[in-house]
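Progress report, Aim 2. The chain analyzed during this reporting quarter is listed below.
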Amino acid sequence: MFSPEGPGLRELAVQALSSVERGYDLLAPKFDHTPFRTPDAVLDAVAAALTRMGPFGNGLDLCCGTGAGTVVPARVCRDSVTGVDFSAGMLAVARRRALPAGPRVHWVRADARALPFAPVFDLVVSFGAFGHFLPRELPGLFAQVRSVLRPGGRFAFPLVAPPRPGSPAYWALLGFDAVMRVRNAVWRPPFVMYYRTFRPSDVRRELTRAGFRVELHALPEFGRRRDGSPRVRLVVARRPAR
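Predicted structure tokens for the chain:
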């Protein structure tokens, strides 16, 4: 869970009672020491899968946070990598991060729902950010991603299989989402973070509606569940060449 270098209970409480942007500004210096950061094992597996599909030219890390996931496009893109996030605090940490030598790196503060880019990217990745978007926002979000991709470009992100109903993980996520809904019903500004709203079937449907061709690739590093389904998949949504 939280390491000794991570935030304390009071810090987490202050963050939870803030807006999403302000909350992450406060959490940024210690974010990499929390369980909210995407594990290196996931980043390495995604990088390995994309290496087999690449190389790519220009890459974008959507909702890059502290830049932990930006290492992935930095490994597989030859020309440039851009990290975009709306938290100034998270970007300040990202700018101090050491990334693999090679492509040029740029950091941009912007909202993922209104990206300030032309269609110049060959690859867009994102890690752990989709819980901050309500289901009704997905069509607009995916349309924004498509708008910044070159024809033939790919939008890739890992997707963990949902926990089985009745399992401890199922009840933990259900409880977390319930607490957040109560919090947002009685406190302003809202803090949007839900774990059970980004459903695989909805994601694939909305990506297809946004004009993507969607593929699912099992990440073998994480094995399979008892029913044979992958524990973690890589979603690869391609903007058609025409």
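The CA atoms of residues 84 and 108 lie 5 Å apart. The chain is about 35% helix and 20% strand. These observations will guide the mutagenesis work planned for the next reporting period.
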